[in-house]
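Backbones bend. We report:
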Amino acid sequence: MRWSTYLSPADRREHVGLLYDGAIRGLPGPGTLTGLLGDHGQRLEQARAQAMHDPVEVLPVSAVRFRAPIPRPPSIRDFMAFEEHVRTSATALGHDVSPVWYEVPLFYFTNPAAVRGPSDDVPVAPGSGCFDYELEIAAVVGRAGSDLDPATAEQYIAGYMVMCDWSARDVQGHEMQGHLGPVKGKDTATSFSATLVTPDELEPYRVGNAYDLAMTASVNGKPYSAGRLRDIYWRFGELLAYASRGTTLIPGDIIGSGTVGTGCILELSRVHGADSYPWLQPGDQVRLEVAHLGVIESTIIAGRPVRPLRPAATHSAPTHSAPTHSAPTHSAATHSAPTHSAATHSAATGALNPEPLRSGDGSTGN
C-alpha cells in the first residue's frame, strides 16, 4: 500500500488517501495517517478497503497537492547509518572514524514543526551561506514499543519515505564548537516524499541489511548523488532498537537513516572540490529520488534575515565565517570525543552493561 496526506480541492482540508493505479482515492476528512496506525495493520487494511470501494473522491495525481505523509510527527530522530558517508567525511578531514560509531547508531532529534511536503519550497536557513541537502530514507513507527529486540524491531515499521535533512553547514559547524547539537543548522526544514510505502511493497527488493533501492540526487538537472539503500551499515531494526532503549516509540515517530554515501554537497565537495559542487542558492532546483519509494523536488528560496540576540556592542563573541566545506555532519567521524568502554563505564558508575545491538565487536564494515 501507498498512503498519502493531501489537500483536497473540494474542501481545502487535509485528507488521507490511497495511491492506486495513478490516482488518489480519498478517505473522508478530517483524518490523519497517524490515526490509522497503532495496531498490527488492521486499521490500514480497513482504510484500504474503504478507499477502494467507497472513496470520498478519486483524483489524478497531477491534481493533488501533497503534504508530507505524516505532516506533524510526534518526533523525528535522524541517524548516521551509512558507513561510506562517515568514512569519506572522516578521510577528507584527516580523521579516523570514531570507534563509537561502530558501537551504537548515533542520532539527533530534529524539528517536527519544520516538516515540508515533497514539492514545497525550502528557504535557506537564516544567516547561512552554505546550504545543503541530505539524501536519506525514513521509516515511520507503526505501533508503540520500548526496549525493542533488534532482530524483530522492523515489525514495528508501518512504512518508508524519502527524506531530506536540509542543512546549514556554516551555522552547524559554528554552533557544534560548543559541544552540543546540531541545533539551528538543521532546524529550518525536513522534506518527505508524497507516499508512505508499506514494507510488503518493498519485500521483493530485500537484500543484505535492507532493500536494494537506488538513491539519487540532482541539482538544476545535474546529477549529484548516487547510492543504494542496501549499503546501510546499521539496519533499521537496530535503529529502532536503540531509539527505543529506555523509552517508548509511538505511532508516527520518524526514524531517519542519515545520509547515503555521496548524498550531500558537503561530502561531494570534499572529494571533488567546491567549484564542482557549490552550496545551494535561491532558485536552485533540487530533486531527490529513491526507486520504488518516491521523489522530493524542491525549489530553494531566500530565507529570513537573522534577528540579532543582543545589540552588537554588548557582546564580543567572534562571528562565524563560512567554512571551506569543512563543517561537520551529524556524525561521530567529525569529532574526537573519547570512546567509553563498557568496562570503564561499569567501574565508574556501577551500572550494568547494556545489551549489545550486535554480537561480536562490530569493528568491521559491511
Remarks:
- Helices lie at 42-53, 83-93, 100-103, 169-175, 199-202, 236-243, 265-272, 342-349.
- The first strand starts at residue 2 and ends at 7.
- The chain has two domains: 2-66, 76-304+320-334.
